[in-house]
């Protein structure tokens, strides 16, 4: 191992650790998960009558949010340190990220609160832009609209997909050992040390720091990541005044609601998500790549903030203009990178 690795290289081991916490807490939650039409009220039973039931739900919810915080830090770190030799590692990581987004969305629907129900309604209705969408939506919902049957299907997928995620994590780690990690760009000398004991103790220290933050939210800020609207039972006759997803989906959501056309909104929503994937094809050594990454991260935080605001001036005005400049910058750097590679040959 190179001697000049910093603490940002501990994000990978933290992600595996949090993934295991989510698996274990999820399995214990399933023991008390009532798959019936009164699932919302069964959560009250979990909170009030099950020993440490509230602890389990807080742990699972807070763990999911910390998972996304760490994975975004892990992605941004990989952008700064990566090189062309680890492109396959980056691509496999992108697949894991997309799969994780799907798992998080499915899990968000399960409490069957107001925001869960309307979030599922809005997202699944995005498929209506495709031909024969009515048939697809009927098989996804299992009904003519989002209902209890839909929740059963989402629960089955939410329980299954984390184990499939584990398979992709295994392949990601194997590609990491085959092609090297982003730390390969830091090795300029033969000044290397063994993994044990130095980096083992650094990993343990990183896990202890993570436990500190987890304990803080778990015991002092346990409702910090909960949405107030989701404490109300799902009602298909009453739409919340302000529908918004979890904070880790606000980046594409802010771009989606810019467009009055549903088709355009879905297209640019998909493009915004795939922007994480597209960057893996860029030449990491072209001169302005660092500037591009800084701009990309800056836009990410801006859209995350704007996505959580109401659709009114000046937030909608800023979202519209920033969306235009965001995709313009991505196109500019894409063609700049393409022309550089073309003329280099």
TrEMBL record:
Belongs to the cytochrome b family. It comes from Vallicula multiformis. It is a multi-pass membrane protein. It comes from the Eukaryota. GO terms for biological process: mitochondrial electron transport, ubiquinol to cytochrome c. It is found in: Mitochondrion inner membrane. Binds 2 heme groups non-covalently. This is Cytochrome b. GO terms for molecular function: metal ion binding; oxidoreductase activity; quinol-cytochrome-c reductase activity. The lineage of its organism: Eukaryota, Metazoa, Ctenophora, Tentaculata, Platyctenida. Gene3D superfamilies: Cytochrome Bc1 Complex, Chain C. One of its GO terms (cellular component) is mitochondrial inner membrane. InterPro entries: Cyt_b/b6_C, Cyt_b/b6_C_sf, Cyt_b/b6_N, Cytb/b6-like_sf, Di-haem_cyt_TM.
């Amino acid at each position: 191992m190179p001697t000049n690795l910093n603490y940002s290289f501990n994000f990978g081991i933290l992600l595996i650790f949090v993934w295991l916490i989510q698996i274990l807490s999820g399995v214990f939650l399933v023991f008390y998960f009532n798959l019936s039409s009164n699932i919302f009220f069964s959560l009250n039973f979990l909170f009030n009558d099950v020993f440490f039931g509230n602890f389990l739900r807080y742990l699972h919810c807070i763990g999911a949010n910390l998972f996304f915080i760490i994975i975004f830090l892990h992605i941004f770190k990989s952008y700064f340190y990566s090189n062309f030799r680890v492109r396959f590692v980056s691509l496999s990581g992108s697949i894991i990220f997309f799969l994780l987004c799907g798992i998080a969305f499915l899990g968000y629907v399960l409490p069957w609160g107001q925001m869960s129900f309307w979030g599922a309604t809005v997202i699944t209705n995005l498929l209506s832009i495709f031909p024969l969408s009515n048939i697809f939506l009927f098989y996804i919902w299992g009904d003519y609209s989002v209902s209890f049957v839909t929740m059963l299907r989402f629960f089955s997928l939410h329980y299954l997909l984390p184990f499939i995620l584990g398979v992709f994590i295994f392949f990601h780690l194997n590609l990491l050992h085959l092609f090297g990690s982003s730390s390969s760009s830091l090795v300029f000398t033969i000044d290397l040390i063994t993994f044990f004991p130095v980096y083992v103790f650094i990993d343990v220290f990183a896990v202890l720091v993570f436990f500190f933050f987890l304990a803080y939210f778990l015991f002092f800020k346990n409702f910090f990541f909960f949405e107030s609207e989701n404490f109300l039972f799902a009602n298909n006759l009453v739409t919340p005044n302000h529908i918004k997803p979890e904070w880790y989906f606000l980046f594409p959501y802010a771009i989606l609601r810019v467009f009055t056309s549903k088709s355009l909104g879905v297209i640019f929503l998909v493009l915004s998500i795939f922007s994480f994937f597209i960057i893996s094809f860029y030449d990491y050594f072209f001169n302005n790549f660092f500037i591009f990454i800084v701009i990309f991260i800056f836009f990410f935080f801006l859209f995350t903030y704007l996505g959580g605001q109401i659709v009114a001036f000046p937030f909608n005005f800023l979202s519209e203009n920033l969306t235009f400049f965001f995709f313009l910058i991505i196109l500019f750097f894409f063609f700049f990178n393409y022309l550089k590679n073309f003329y280099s040959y």
